Amino acid sequence: MGLSRGQIITLLAIFLPNGAGPSRATVGRWVSQASRQAGVRLAGRDPLCQRWVLVLCLDEIFFHREPLLMAVEPHSLAWVAGQRGPDRSGESWGDLMAKWPFAERVVADAGKGIERGVKLANEARANEAQECAAARAFEMGRDVLHTQRELQRIVHGQWRRAEQLIEAAAQADAKVARSPHRGRDARGVAKQAWWAWRKAEQRFDAAVPAEAAAAQIETALALVRPEGCLSDRQWAQGQIGAALAALHGPHWGKVRRLLSDPRTLNHLDWVHKPWTQAVAEPLLREAATRLWYWREALALAHGQKRVHLAQLVVIEQVVCQRLSPQWHQAYERVDQIVRGVVRASSAVEGLNSVLRMHQARHRHVSQAMLDLKRLYWNCRAFCHGKRTGHCPYELLGLKLPTDNWWTLLQMAPKELEQKLSTQEVAA
C-alpha cells in the first residue's frame, strides 16, 4: 500500500498491546525479507506470463530523477515490468522488451528512448533464427491519449485567454461609464475599451474553430465513425488534414508532429486486419458494428439522447436478426476485435498514478521494493469496473495455487516452483 516505516509502526501500535510494537529496524528487516521473496516469486512467474503478453503499454516515471521503466499489459492491467534505471535510453528499453518474446505490439508516447528501443528489439528479433512469435517485428502504435491531451491543453488555454480578455474589456466598459460622472473626457478611455473588445473578439473567433478542429481530430482517431461504421486510415487522414488546415500558429507544432506520424493511425490498420475474417458477410458485419457502436453510446447517454439511442439499438438489432439467425456470434466476434485493439497507453498511465502515491511516501524505492509492489498489484483483485473480483494474473491467464499474495509470498520456493512448472507442462 506504499506506507512508510513510521506509518506501519503507528498502525501496529493501535492494535498491539502497549510496548509490544516492533521497532523501526524490525519493520525494515520484515520489508527487506518480503521484498527479496517477491523478487524470487516474480522471477519464476514472469516466464509463465510471456505467452499471454501480446501487447505492451510502455512509459517511464521518475523516482527522484531516476527513471523507472514501466510496462503494462492493457487488457488485464498486469504490471509486467517495473525496472529501476539505469536510464531511459533505447538500449535499456530494448533489453526490457527482449524479456517478452511473444509480444507483437507496443503502444507508447513519442519518447525517443522507447522508439529506439523498439528499433533495437526488432533488429534483435530479425537476427534470431527461430520460427516463433519472437521472430516477428514489433508493431508500434503512437499513443492517442497524449495527442488528445495536447489538443485539450491548447484549446483550454485559448478559451482561458479569451475569457481573460473579455473580462478586461468589461472592466474597460465600466471605466468608460464612470468617466462622465467624474468630469473626465471619456474618448480616450472609450478607445481603449474598443481595442479591448477587438482583441477579445479576435481571441474568441480563434478559439471557436480550434475547438471544432480538436473535436474533428478526436473523431478521426476513434475506431468507429459517428454514423456507426468502422473507420479507416484514408478517411481519418482526410479528417485530420481538414482539421489541421484550420489550426494556425506555432503552438500547434507538437500536435502537427504527432498527427503527421503514420503510427498515430496504426490502430485502424490493426482493427481492419482480422475484420473480414471475423464476419464474412459484409452487410452483417456492418450491422453488427453499428449495433456495437450504439450500445456503447447508450451506456453513456442520459435524458432524451438515451431514448433516441435506445431506438437505434432496437432497429439495428432487428436488422441483424433479419440478416442472419446466428447474428449473436457475429456480434461477439466484432466486440472481441474492437475491444482487443489498443490505441492508448492509458493503462500504464493509470498505474503510474498509483506509483506516484508511493513516491510521495518514500524517500527511496529500491528494485526489491518495486518487485514487492508489483507482486501485490498483480495478485490483488479489482474492486470496481469490468474486472471486479479478478486479479491481473487471473485475467492474463496465469493460474496460481492461490490468489492471496501474502500466502504466495510465504510458500516454500520449491513447492511453488513445482506447482508452476506443472501448469507450464499442462499449458
Overall structural class, as computed from helix and strand content, comes to alpha/beta
Strand content: 5-15%
User: Biggest sheet, in brief?
Assistant: 5 strands, mixed
N-to-C SSE string, H for helix and E for strand: HHEEEHEHEHHHHHHHHHHHHHH
Strand ordering within the main sheet: 3-2-1-4-5
Mean pLDDT: 87
- Between the first and last Cα atoms, what is the distance in angstroms? 33 Å
Q: Tell me how many strands there are.
A: 5
Q: Which consecutive residue ranges, at least 5 long each, have pLDDT under 50?
A: none
Description:
- By secondary structure, the protein is α/β, with parallel strands linked by helices.
- The chain has three domains: 25-143 and 344-426, Nucleotidyltransferase, domain 5 (2-Layer Sandwich), CATH 3.30.420.10; 159-266, no CATH class; 274-340.
- The protein is built from 18 helices and five strands.
- The protein has helices spanning 5-15, 24-49, 90-97, 112-127, 144-178, 187-221, 233-244, 253-260, 266-272, 275-278, 282-300, 303-323, 327-340, 346-361, 367-379, 392-396, 405-410, 413-426, and strands at 55-63, 66-73, 78-84, 105-108, 139-142.
- It has a five-stranded mixed β-sheet with strand order 3-2-1-4-5, sandwiched between helices.
- Strand 4 (105-108), helix 4 (112-127) and strand 5 form a beta-alpha-beta unit.
- Helix 2 packs across helix 15 (367-379), helix 6 packs antiparallel against helix 7 and helix 11 (282-300) packs across helix 13 (327-340).
Describe the structure using short key phrases.
alpha/beta, globular, 3 domains, Nucleotidyltransferase, domain 5, single chain, 5-stranded mixed beta sheet, 18 helices, 63% helix, 427 residues
